UniProtKB/TrEMBL annotation:
InterPro entries: AARE_N, AB_hydrolase_fold, Peptidase_S9_cat. Residues 150-411 form the Acylamino-acid-releasing enzyme N-terminal domain. This is acylaminoacyl-peptidase. It comes from Lentinula boryana. Residues 483-716 form the Peptidase S9 prolyl oligopeptidase catalytic domain.
Length: 719
């Protein structure tokens, strides 16, 4: 097992942001430093004339940054010092060289929010103001009851975020104020209205009817909506007060979970866009795209659906929109020929691709189809300007590239690679020794699996041990994007299978809803049939040490079922933060998941369209959902715990002790139960606990231990 191989595979720079100017791309990359066990950010400028780049510079202390529409001004949210002496600064720069304003906000609020759900750093069109979101300042009085008040966190992946506050900074006068409003909602993804310093559009996050704040990461079915905020600048608000009052109004209907507002201004017309899916039900369903003309006024009744959810696409046709956590790109607008369009990445089967959407009639065109059977996944658009866009693409065996697209008048798109990772000749040669293809599973549509194999083994007709890694969710997808852990396992001498089962995104809404109420049956059946098909076509074979499993979250749920229901098939399994007993929801931040995915009603009510404050109608009252004996019985029998007595495979459990999504006790209790049942083979059951790690186990050291131990666990099964 080569630690050096893992280190080099994971040290590949990952593009995280880019800003497209007239003659240069300013790009940021995340890199892993295994020596210091940290993730670092570097920046470089890339010339659009020669595609040459400046030497990398490390970005230190920058939490978030954004350029104004003119490209002349840049806002930076910066943190410096250690936890005991943390300073927070808001900076405005001119042409990246002159510091125009710097305000110390350390005593005004807590941490800055730069995540996909609340990031609101942007300039107004006049470039006189910026908005951003930060944590409300905690009470400091020793005997204050306020500091012990119950405040709910926003769940997994949003550590330390309880009370987001929207701030407005007039950098020319150095005045910083919070925006206050009278509505039970928290705002994020805010942006200014067209040609206005007083109007803001934002995503509003609400609680469930029992005032429970459900986790939002990866969950797009929450009670959320698009809101209009109008800052009241009367005499009362022109003093030196620390806050400004806003009038708020909800623009979207209560049955839709809406997010990702974007304002497009072109040819004297301004359009508000956003994405939606149904409130409640599947956590990640097919999205719809809506538009509203806001040129002269905001009339929600005039909302149009540009792109509707696709129920069952014909073969090869557009399957619907499946967006990332960040939603639509921050600047999605492009002008092409005589028309106005937006571009966005979307999950399409086992890959991400870029689509072009007409703002006139919602027509969708794929810009990055598969060509010459080269499987590329286009995972992000990080910048657009005019008819140009900067994207990130990769394949499972080719690391991330930053590419510049130029939309030609004839309908063509030309792509130029402006940055790519530099690998050692040895590692590049080893990656070139792997082949990737997508295998459809007969009679199980839309089930398919991404298969990574060694070319030399294929030529020698040698069948390597096969590791199947089903994704979590369950409404997610395995895609052909670069994955260092998958490459690492393949280079360790394994065939790797990444199945997409019924319920996966990217295939149409029909197949997402087909899994509701069938978890533990339909998805498990798809996974076992994918393994059987690989055996049938000679890509895998049965026998001790030949069929192996790895997976986390709902993927771990599937593994628990597979080793319990098919003990004669699988020799070994590695489960990361798995769901073992769906009836034990305890500390989970998404308690509705344990109801809705198993077809148990968990209605989520939302504030109505037109809500402006407590004097208007509120959300409907809904009784709390409680795990009754009848509910528990159904969930128990749909869970892996019901099959634990039949498990014979060796099992490695990898548990983050700070997981807020799946209670760590699920994996811990499974470990102890297996140890009690397997007294004759205690070495076949092992568990590692990662302090401070959450659901993804994505810390630098934790991730490394996870995958090195996984490989070593499987290597001991080699025969």
């Amino acid at each position: 097992m080569s630690t050096e191989t893992y280190d080099e595979l994971t040290a590949v720079p990952v593009p995280t942001a880019a800003f497209l100017h007239d003659h240069v791309i300013q790009a940021h990359f995340s890199i892993i430093d295994h020596v210091r066990n940290v993730k670092r950010t570097i920046s470089k400028s890339i010339s659009l004339d020669s595609f040459t780049a400046t030497p990398s510079e490390e970005v230190i202390g920058v939490v978030n940054t954004v350029y104004s529409a003119s490209g002349k001004l840049k806002a930076i949210l910066r943190e410096t010092g250690d936890e005991k002496d943390k300073k927070r600064l808001v900076e405005i720069w001119n042409n990246d060289t002159v510091l125009l304003a710097c305000k110390d906000v350390s005593d005004v609020h807590g941490i800055f929010y730069a995540d996909a759900f609340f990031d609101s750093l942007c300039f107004s069109d006049s470039e006189k103001y910026i908005t951003y979101v930060a944590e409300k300042k905690k009470p400091t009085e020793k005997n204050s009851f306020e500091k012990f008040k119950y405040n709910q966190p926003f769940g997994e992946g949003l550590v330390g975020k309880y009370t987001p506050v929207l701030f407005l900074f007039d950098w020319q006068t150095d005045r910083l104020v919070s925006l206050d409003y009278d509505a039970p909602v928290w705002f994020g993804q805010a942006l200014f209205g067209p040609s206005s310093d007083d109007k803001i559009f934002a995503t509003g996050y609400e609680t469930a009817s029992d005032e429970r704040l459900l986790g939002i990461k990866g969950c797009y079915n929450r009670p959320t909506g698009i809101w209009e905020l109008i800052i009241a600048r009367d005499e009362k608000n022109t003093t030196d007060a620390d806050s400004l009052k806003c009038h708020v109004s909800k623009l979207t209907a209560s049955h839709l979970s809406c997010r990702s507002p974007r304002v497009i201004s072109s040819n004297g017309k301004s359009t508000l866009l956003w994405a939606s899916q149904p409130t409640g039900g599947a956590h990640s369903a097919t999205s719809a795209l809506h538009s509203l003309d806001i040129t002269s006024s905001v009339e929600p009744s005039q909302t149009r659906t540009l792109v509707d959810a696709v129920w069952e696409p014909a073969e090869g046709d557009f399957p619907g929109l499946y967006l990332l956590d960040s939603g639509l790109p921050r600047t999605p607008y492009v002008h092409w020929g005589e028309g106005d369009y937006i571009v966005t990445p979307t999950n399409w089967g086992s890959r991400f691709t870029i689509v072009l959407i007409s703002l006139y009639d919602g027509t969708v065109k794929e810009l990055t189809p598969v060509v010459d059977e080269k499987l590329l996944s286009w995972s992000a658009i990080v910048a657009t300007k005019g008819n140009k866009l900067v994207c990130v693409r990769s394949s499972l065996t080719n690391p991330f590239e930053l590419v510049l697209g130029d939309l030609g008048a004839s309908g063509s798109v030309s792509w130029n690679v402006v940055h790519k990772a530099v690998l050692s000749e040895q590692l590049q040669s080893r990656l070139n020794s792997l082949t990737v293809k997508i295998v459809s599973i007969p009679d199980r549509f839309p089930t398919e699996t991404i298969l990574i194999q060694d070319k030399a083994a294929l030529q020698d007709h040698k069948i390597l041990p096969c590791i199947s890694i089903p994704h979590g969710g369950p409404h997610g997808a395995n895609v052909v994007s670069y994955s260092a852990p998958v490459c690492f396992l393949a280079l360790e001498g394994y065939t790797v299978s990444l199945p997409n089962y019924t319920g996966s995104t990217g295939y149409g809404e029909k197949y997402i809803r087909a899994l509701i109420g069938q978890c533990g049956q339909l998805d498990v059946g798809d996974c076992i049939e994918s393994v059987r098909h690989l055996v049938k076509i000679g890509a895998a074979r049965e026998g001790r040490g030949k069929l192996l499993l790895a997976g986390g979250s709902h993927g771990g749920f599937l593994l628990g079922h597979l080793i319990g229901q098919y003990p004669e098939v699988f020799t070994s399994a590695v489960l990361r933060n798995p769901v073992i007993s769906a009836g034990e929801i305890s500390t989970s931040d998404i308690q509705d998941w344990y109801f809705s995915e198993f077809a148990l009603d968990y209605p989520l009510s939302s504030l109505p369209l037109g809500y402006t404050g407590p004097s208007t109608s509120s959300k409907a009252a809904i009784p709390p959902r409680i795990v009754t004996p009848e509910v528990y019985s159904k969930l128990y029998h749909a869970s892996p715990i019901a099959h634990i007595h039949k498990v014979t495979a060796s099992v490695l459990l990898l548990i983050g002790d700070s997981d807020q999504r799946v209670a760590p006790t699920q994996g811990i209790d499974y470990y102890h139960a297996l140890r009690a049942l397997r007294t004759d083979s205690p070495d076949d059951i092992e568990m590692l606990i990662f302090p401070g790690e959450g659901h993804p186990l994505e810390g630098v050291e934790a991730s490394k231990v996870v995958w090195l131990r996984t490989a070593k666990w499987f290597n001991r099964e080699a025969v």
